[in-house]
Write a structure and sequence with these properties.
Layout (H helix, E strand, L loop, with lengths): L5 E6 L7 H14 L3 E5 L2 H7 L2 E4 L26 H14 L3 E6 L1 H14 L3 E5 L15 H21 L3 E6 L6 H10 L3 E3 L1 H4 L4 H7 L9 E6 L6 H12 L5 E5 L11 H19 L5 E6 L2 E6 H6 L6 H10 L2
The structure holds adenosine-5'-diphosphate.
The site of adenosine-5'-diphosphate has 17 residues, from helix 4.
Length: 326
């Protein structure tokens, strides 16, 4: 059995639906195992300034259904400095927090990895990001909810697109990853997806248009992943106006609405399983790992692997989209 008597929990970086379900699961699993829990507000910022509260099971009642994070989140540049991390570490020691569970994306886990290494301190990460861009886990918390939000938005855009004779470019988030754009396109019956993983290899816009993708249709929707590589929906639309002026082009940027909303059942279950698994990891003396899910089984992925590797896109999905968009 682990000797840890008190664990801290924080959410950091971009918020994602299901973070609250993860906070609830970590808190309850810790208390179930006789470990005290301290909630740290505003991510690494609150760790430095000492916004820390002892959590009971009631602190996490009635939150599983809410998007966002009750612990709030923040971006903290001070934590990127050795001096800032020393203050954070001293705060952990002063608070009697013997291990940390952090919920967030790539940046959050990078910060956790550095803190853990510098002070030989036990940390377990939980992947909370709508982008699904962390290596070693099939999905991340928030991704499924964001995908459903995109699908519902594109369904609505299609109503207006088909009423007119228009080509819509819909920009979705992804931070240089095409998961939301590609699967969002399949789920909403869009004609194509322009994603960074492929845009570096070939001119997807030219290929899509030259393949005559509008032959049998009077309206089309193309999902574009936000990224310098794709140019985003605005960049793509500008190009179409110049090179293919026959199209009546419109742009919709879904933006922050993709982050909000009540988490789907899948995200709540994933967050619940990962929260319990994070405490299990600490009980087993595992440290510096991220909880992941592969083939519906919980796995533990070293921070170094989760952060350093690019998660590959499943190329079979590209073919599925191509076949179905005729
Ligand atoms: P996300 O976790 O969603 O990827 P960010 O990239 O904004 O979000 O990272 C969240 C926070 O993690 C940052 O504000 C910072 O405090 C910390 N962080 C990110 N990168 C580093 C780094 N290289 N070193 C130390 N801390 C970092």
């Amino acid at each position: 059995m682990s000797a840890i008597k008190c664990v801290g929990i924080l959410t950091s970086g971009g918020d994602a639906p299901g973070m609250n379900a993860a906070i609830r699961a970590v808190t309850r699993a810790a208390i179930f195992n006789g470990i005290a829990v301290k909630g740290i507000y505003r991510g690494y910022k609150g760790l430095i300034t000492g916004e820390i509260v002892l959590f009971k099971t009631e602190n996490v009642s009635n939150i599983i259904q809410h998007g966002g994070t009750i612990l709030k989140t923040a971006r903290c540049t001070e934590f990127k400095t050795p001096e800032g991390r020393k203050i954070a570490y001293d705060r952990l020691v002063a608070e009697g927090i013997e291990a940390l569970v952090v919920i967030g994306g790539d940046g959050t886990l990078t910060g956790a990895r550095i803190l853990a290494q510098e002070f030989n301190y036990p940390i377990v990460g939980i992947p909370g990001t709508i982008d699904n861009d962390l290596y070693g886990t099939d999905i991340t918390i928030g991704y499924d909810t964001a995908l459903n939000t995109i699908m519902e938005a594109v369904d609505k855009i299609r109503d207006t697109a088909t009423s007119h004779d228009r080509l819509f470019f819909v920009e979705v988030m992804g931070r240089d990853a095409g998961f939301l754009a590609l699967n969002g396109a399949i789920a909403s019956g869009a004609e194509a997806a322009i994603i960074p993983e492929i845009a570096v290899e070939k001119d997807q816009l030219a290929e899509t248009i030259e393949n005559g993708f509008r032959k049998s249709k009077n309206s089309s929707i193309v999902l574009v992943a936000e990224s310098d590589v794709t140019g985003g929906a605005m960049g793509v639309a500008e190009r179409v106006k110049k090179e293919y002026p026959q199209f009546d082009v419109r742009v919709t940027i879904l933006g922050h609405l993709q982050r909000g909303g009540s988490p789907t059942a899948q995200d709540r279950i994933l967050a619940s399983r990962m929260g319990v698994a994070a405490i299990d990891a600490l009980l087993e003396d595992q440290r510096n790992v991220m909880t992941g899910i592969q083939n519906d089984q919980i796995v533990y992925v070293p921070f170094s692997k989760a952060i350093k590797n690019d998660k590959p896109i499943n190329r079979e999905l590209l073919n599925t989209l191509r076949v179905l968009s005729i």
